[in-house]
Specification:
Keywords: Membrane, Transmembrane, Transmembrane helix. By secondary structure, this protein is mainly alpha-helical. It has helices at about 1-45, 55-70, 70-75, 110-115, 150-155, 165-170, 175-180, 195-205, and strands spanning about 85, 90, 105, 110. Among the domains are: about 1-30; about 55-90 and about 140-205, no CATH class. Bound molecules: heme C (2 copies).
Length: about 220
């Protein structure tokens, strides 16, 4: 008698275990499909950015984009030379840290020695980001001194923009270093419009044919 009960329990345990394992697997599968769905959604939204050419709207949008690109929060990392710029007047960085091959500085003057993963509290302290660096030596992405015409052409040229296609250009609006411009640390002015407005102008410029202003 006792042994049949034991047998029953053992048998049921096997069933319970099976149900348990299946339950976990079901959860995993639904989680995975959830994750891939959100992935798909993001892709659909970028893939559905249909280019509808409109040179007037495009040029107007780029003029807004240009105002942000040329603001000190952006231009200071997109200098014409190999030394980053500082301050709202975009003067040469004190102690002249050099770009280096990868844009991360050289020898004892690596950007990350002073620029921490987050902003250092206080005035005149280094702004922070885990990836704080200049564009690399073979792809300098200069903004300083470029006219709106020149910069629009340059941004769309794969040889000068790091081989970015439309999708990558769209995504760049939310790049960590771009977002850093709107969290610049104490005592620094913000770019001339909100990040949302900038992103809208950037997308409008691209989706209307990425026309360059005449000048
Ligand atoms: C020796 C320390 C040090 C090193 C090395 C250094 N920086 Fe800085 N950086 C600073 C400090 C301090 C400030 C803030 C200066 C101020 O606000 O007066 C600053 C500010 C800046 C700014 C201005 C930010 C803005 O919004 O105006 C940029 C851009 C910058 N650094 C880029 C770099 C890059 C790129 C490198 C590496 C190639 C680098 N720095 C290396 C200390 C350093
Ligand atoms: C700490 C330095 C730094 C700051 C500050 C910075 N950038 Fe950049 N930017 C980079 C680097 C490095 C790259 C190249 C990396 C890449 O392409 O992913 C880059 C690339 C770009 C590109 C792509 C260029 C091209 O030719 O396609 C754009 C657009 C851009 N930045 C816009 C901005 C804007 C807008 C701001 C200000 C809101 C800004 N950046 C601030 C370092 C910076």
């Amino acid at each position: 008698m006792k042994s049949t009960i034991n047998q029953l329990i053992t048998k049921h345990w096997a069933v319970f275990r099976l149900i348990g394992v299946m339950g976990i697997m079901l959860c995993l599968v639904s989680l995975m499909s959830l994750a891939s769905n959100t992935g798909n959604k993001a892709e659909v939204s970028t893939a559905t950015l249909v280019v509808k050419k409109d040179s007037v709207a495009s040029v107007a949008a780029f003029k807004k984009v240009y105002r942000v690109l040329m603001s000190p929060r952006c231009m200071n990392c997109h200098p014409a030379g190999d030394v980053p710029l500082q301050g709202d007047d975009s003067h040469l960085h004190t102690m002249s840290p050099q770009r280096g091959l990868e844009g991360k500085g050289v020898y004892a003057m690596k950007c990350s020695n002073c620029h921490q993963p987050t902003n250092t509290p206080g005035k005149n302290t280094p702004p922070g980001n885990p990836n704080w660096h200049l564009p690399p030596a073979n792809m300098k992405m200069v903004f300083e001194g470029r006219t709106a015409h020149q910069l629009a052409k340059q941004l769309m040229d794969p040889k000068q923009n790091g081989n970015k296609d439309m999708k990558k250009l769209i995504e760049h609006a939310d790049d960590g270093l771009v977002l850093a411009g709107w969290n610049p640390g104490e005592g620094r002015t913000l770019p001339p419009m909100s990040h949302a407005e900038f992103k809208k102008a950037w997308l409008t410029w691209l989706s209307t044919g990425a026309y360059a202003p005449k000048k």
